[in-house]
Amino acid sequence: MSSLNSILIVSYTRNTLTMLIEQLNEIGLPEFFEIDGRTVDDLDRLSMKDYSLVLVSSEIVYSMVKPYLPAKTPYLICKRTVNYANIRELLDVPKGTKVYLVSDLKQSTEESIRILKDAGIDLDFYPYYTQETPREDITIAITPGEPQLVPKHIKRVINIGSRLIDISTLVEIFNHFGISPFSPTTHLSARFMQSLVDITQELSDEIFRSRLLQKSLDSIVQNMDEAVLVYNNQDEIQVCNKNAADILNLPTQFEKESIHLIQESFLTAMRNLQVGQENFVEIDGTTFYMRKKRITIGEQVHSTLIVFRKAEDYRKIEHDYRSKAKQRNLYARYRFDDIRTVSLPVIEMIKIAGRLAKSNSTILILGETGTGKEVLAQAIHHASPRNHNPFIGVNFAAISESLMESELFGYEPGAFTGARKNGHIGMFEQAHMGSIFLDEIGDASPVIQNRLLRVLQERQIMRVGGDKLIPLDVRVIAATNKDLKKLIEEGTFREDLYYRLNVLPLKMLPLRERKQDISLLINIFSKEFEEKLGREPLVFSKEALKLCESYHWPGNVRELRNIVEYVAHICNETVYKEDLPILDNELSYFSHEPENDHLYEIEEEFREKGFFEEALLILEYLNSEEIESAGRSAMINHLLQKGYFLSDQQLRYRQKLLSNHDLITIEKGRKGSQITDKGKKFIYLYEKSMGL
Ligand SMILES: Nc1ncnc2c1ncn2[C@@H]1O[C@H](COP(=O)(O)OP(=O)(O)OP(=O)(O)O)[C@@H](O)[C@H]1O
């Protein structure tokens, strides 16, 4: 699947999944995002990389999702809360009664108990989430949507329904996409209010006044940045948050006050605003942005919701947003001085870059991954006359193709389903008067290459869905770690684009071709981590340094920095050669015996899929002397003890892959799986390579 702002929601059971999707539907998320849902058992057949966000129903489910989650796919772990609308029945249970809280997993069971206790439900809770023999003296069970797990002898089951996603997570979802949930265009606040009113209507007065509902209501309304006021048909104020009380000079604590407490001019402005309308209104010299909504119950209008805010706040929000963006990627952090080197060719290249910086020409930076291409691009911008204007970085390998066009060129309002109502400024426009850094340009799709070529030729862009050409003054700096000439030969990169980009090429040398820099950078990074970790100085022994100098550094400076970070964590004062097993290429694991290479490829494949550790644990388990063969449930238990939670389906999938590579055999019946000689060799070579 690939679409604009698509969210995948993953949970453990189908019940929970249905409920969570319903909740997201109810508050209107499908208006903004495409929503797809899966249980953990379905993940083997799914690629997550095209989703803009993966929403995971809980911490424990995250541990199951993690192996499938591509490194660049953003995720959020939901905070969940009980469904307050369903807890009426709990209030009938006498205080202090012993009850079971039954749920599927330890964590969700304990969390539900905590939330209920927190909400003032005063019962003697006992968690129940395994198949353990239940206590006969407990006869009431409360469950958040899992009645099938309740022990048989229980006389009364109170199903409070699956736990809902907490408001803080909903707000985080919107924040992730840079949309304010409380902004005039989303109207989410009105929806929250409506759902709260629905709940309050359902509950009796007694519950309404109880601590728990008040708490949830308060936390939502008080946490809103806007001023919120709700009054009913009898003109009685029902809700007034602190922001509203401050602006309107009202007390925050009151019962059924009349709206006539509000000063006349404000009241008139509120009344004059039409329902469903949002507008700037001026009241006694201050401009407010005000919205008005009806809150209905069934067909009946019940209350009126007014949400407002000083107009100047909106300006401030916009300003803050812009300055945040500046910190994020609109700003070049690095200067030439930050490129630390003692290598003559690199020093020479930096000199040339310094001169090129002053021109407006397109620059292409070539170099392997991690050599510092982005650092160089930022330094060029910094040294250019454009340095007071934005530096916008785009990574073609990080954004999905479907998003790329609109991210780069922007779109007009209503350009496609899911487009924001006000349209969207693209990165090229944001970079106007500044520089745009097109990183990993070799990964740009043919469509994007086409459009880039036109921008470079004509220096103007057209937004998606638009018909106007917008002139632009942008300096383009592109970078790639790919051999573009080879891509041209293969037909995946446009030759004409290559010549447009390759006007002034600069090459960042790989670390292995500037060995003098290795000890310099080790010193620099050691100092950095000494400071960060507050640790004693790190000293690399002669052998360790020699090993570093003879290593081929495929990940270049980034890899070197990672290694120094690693030893800064594990070593005392001196770093010995033995502390760097990852670099020891004498070990046969990385040697070029054909079969070992093949084993290395298998490792890579498992790593890419994200479950190398699990596969290794399965092999090690089958390799242990006590085990001749093993069934799946024993294996699941073993993995659980090691901190990996796998469903039956997930285990089957991993076993299938291991057996496809002849590392194990799977036999039907009680015998289960067995490790093969090739599997034993795999473990042996891997452990050797790790110095184990
Ligand atoms: N000469 C240098 N001195 C200090 N730090 C450096 C130097 N070169 C690179 N780095 C650091 O190495 C890391 C990788 O640099 P950068 O992201 O610029 O590489 P890149 O070539 O753009 O990588 P990729 O092709 O993977 O995007 C960064 O943390 C950067 O700060």
Automatic annotation (TrEMBL):
It comes from the Bacteria. Gene3D superfamilies: 1.10.8.60, P-loop containing nucleotide triphosphate hydrolases, PAS domain. InterPro entries: AAA+_ATPase, AAA_lid_NorR, P-loop_NTPase, Sigma_54_int, Sigma_54_int_dom_ATP-bd_1, Sigma_54_int_dom_CS. Residues 339-569 form the Sigma-54 factor interaction domain. Pfam families: AAA_lid_14, Sigma54_activat. Keywords: ATP-binding, Nucleotide-binding, Transcription, Transcription regulation. The keyword Amino-acid biosynthesis does not apply. This is Sigma-54 interaction domain-containing protein.
